[in-house]
Amino acid sequence: MVRSPIVSGTTRRAVCPGSFDPVTNGHLDIIGRTSRLYDEVIVAVLVNQAKAGLFSVDERLDMLREVTAGYPNVRVESFQGLLVDYCKAQGASVVVKGLRAISDFDYELQMAQMNTGLAGVETLFMATNPLYSFLSSSLVKDVAKWGGDVSAHVPDLVVVRLAARLRGPASGEPGA
Ligand code: PNS
Fold first, then answer.
1. CB hemisphere CA count around 68 (13 angstroms)
2. What is the pLDDT of residue 171?
3. Is 171 a catalytic residue?
4. Residue of the nearest CA to atom 2 in ligand 1?
5. Residues near 13 by Cβ (< 8 Å), separated by ≥ 6?
6. Atom in ligand 1 nearest the alpha carbon of residue 79
7. By the 8 A CB rule, do 61 and 45 touch?
């Protein structure tokens, strides 16, 4: 059954969810473009108890807040549990996801259809800027772990935090 859409007054509010471990220029491109289409954008970082990231959720929030500071209608929060419950609590009826390639599509379609069925939350897929179509947080972490240059792929602040985390004196083994 498809539920009726969530309505929240006249404010058009979208959620950009993800792990953001860490935020990349691809994420930032989607967030920025979404901010031009909606009155408010909530960047929602999943708190995933089952999977420890390279960065803690607080660190990811911190980086996201810094790199989105120039967008007055973007706020950054974390969430736990179902994305649709978070969207309902925030009065957001739309999730915006970037689609890099057809390989993203299968799983994204499953989630989108589940989310519409669960709560009437719609998912809009935004075509990724071709500059970033190969980019993922995992790839960035792998390249950075072995000393590769990721400065074209993530904001400067993230380059610095990656270096500190992966090769800093307190980090132990690369990738720890
Ligand atoms: O950046 P990611 O890891 O691709 O983001 C995936 C995310 C956070 C959007 C997805 O895992 C999610 O929505 N998780 C929340 C739990 C949930 O609602 N699961 C059911 C999805 S149909």
1. 31
2. 47
3. no
4. 18
5. 38, 39, 40, 41, 42, 90, 91, 92, 93, 94
6. 15
7. yes
The H or E element spanning position 17 is strand 13-18
Q: Where does the pLDDT of residue 167 fall: very low under 50, low under 70, confident under 90, or very high at 90 and above?
A: confident
The pTM (predicted TM-score) of the whole model is 0.92
Residues in the chain: 176
Burial of 111 (0-12, 13-18, 19+ CB in 10 A): middle
Q: Which two tokens mark 69?
A: 């500071």
Residue by residue, what is the 3-state secondary structure of the chain?
CCCCCCCCCCCCEEEEEECCCCCCHHHHHHHHHHHHHCCEEEEEEECCCCCCCCCCHHHHHHHHHHHCCCCCCEEEEEECCCHHHHHHHHCCCEEEEEECCHHHHHHHHHHHHHHHHHHCCEEEEEECCHHHCCCCHHHHHHHHHCCCCCCCCCCHHHHHHHHHHHHCCCCCCCCC
Token couple for 124: 């809009």
Q: Check residue 34 and report its DSSP letter.
A: H
Query: How much distance in Å is there from the Cα of 163 to the middle of ligand 1?
Result: 27
Q: Which of 110, 92, 109, 108 is nearest to 44 (CA)?
A: 92
Other C-beta atoms closer than 10 Å to the C-beta of 115 total 19
- Sign of the CA dihedral running 160, 21, 43, 48: negative
